[in-house]
Amino acid sequence: MACAGCGTGASGKPNGCKSNGGCDTGGCNRLNVFDWLANIPLGDSLAPFDIIEVSFNNGSRKDFFRNATKQFFEKGEMVAVEGVSGFDVGMVNLTGELVKLQMKKRRVEDTPEVKKLLRRASTDDMNRMSENKAREKEALIKARAIARNLGLEMKLTEVEIQADGRKATFFYTADDRVDFRELIKIYASEFKVKVEMRQIGARQEAGKVGGIGSCGRELCCSTWLSDFKSVNTTAARYQNLSINQAKLSGQCGRLKCCLNYELDTYLDALKDFPEDADTLETAAGTASLQKRDIFKNLMWYSFDNSNKLYPLTITRVKEIRHLNKQGNKPEELKAVELVATKPKEIDLGFVDVVGQISLRSLEKTSQKRKQKGKEKEKEKEKPKQAAPQNQGNQPKQGGNQQKQPQQAKQPQQGGSQGQGQQKPKQPQQAPQQKQHHQKQSQQRHEPKGPGNNNPPQANRPPQQNQQKEKPNTPQQQPKPKPKPPRPPQGNNK
What we know:
It is built from 15 helices and twelve strands. The protein is an alpha+beta fold and 493 residues long. Strand 7 (167-173), helix 4 and strand 8 form a beta-alpha-beta unit. Helix 3 (136-149) packs antiparallel against helix 4. The longest helix is centred in the C-terminal third of the chain and has 31 residues, at 359-389. InterPro entries: PSP1-like, PSP1_C.
């Protein structure tokens, strides 16, 4: 993949990666190559090869040009070259001695007719090229509509406009021959350029469009594959693949090119297998060959009346074949017993020092936190529930109500305080019950005042005893206004 900031600067060199044309990741353009002879110096008597390979339209098309300027160009630089009645702008793809090998591979001869390299691309050249390249998408849409209106059975794949805007090349695919003489006239009048029609195959079309293959990687024809070899179904048979057109065909609709990658390896492995062993004659009947397993060196046979497969070794097949030539038939095939066993796991003595973290431990901690939260909520609700329960027990807890200063100002608490103080002095107050009852009645009818808020002096000694017991009693929240206490039973008598 290319770097995120890859681009072209003002001088024609890569702007983002700062490699000055040495980007070898393969993501900057299609069919990228690596010049592994660039850093090897030549002898003094040898001059560098004067032909340079230049790629156009992000590597979809490549051509060779003669460097008549005698300047040194690095890979990735943008240069201006000769075009059809004008000039074109491309990227330097390969220089040096490797260009000779590329020309020999493509059968291009070093003749004076090779076009020349003019100069390094200037800012004006780059701006003009970008303007004309922006017209390619609209031109492709219009060209397809015109071809459809004329009823031509062809598919336009790509439109490439020259950098100076004087020529446009239309790449198309078609099964049969197409008469596009009238089409060229319409294109020339519509786009105001010189038109060139070039027919390509389905594999070249997939390389220009690009895409992701079934393997999850970018298509080979759009990244590195330049030569297309014919692929037959026999390649799938040698590799024991099921003849399924949907699985064996690529995005171009033809058989996948990768079927030829491992074909040589399979052919070398199949040399040890006998070729004339398609059928074996036995006393039980005729056994037919179903498949060959080159990894286990086994040949699988089955009888005509059953679907059971019998794996045989190569030596056993050769023995049976030798007996059949002599006119003898063995009683049995002597198939190999295959036991599907899992490989034993080898203990390497590794000890996990860090320890294992299970989900149960995490669940326990979460449960503990929930329980603690519930307990805190219950503790907060307990004082609220204790308030209505203590209203019936006010005679016993009357002394404890004096702990809060707000309750001391209520005139009704005086009776409750006196009632709470009588309990420890019940045996001594028997002769003085009438006097105590009169004091309580006076306190009820007295108006509020700053002097009447304090309890009487006679009741203060028991109040001191209650203050000593204060740490042992639990704290209580402010209670609602209690009802007036009932008179003691002794007064009723």
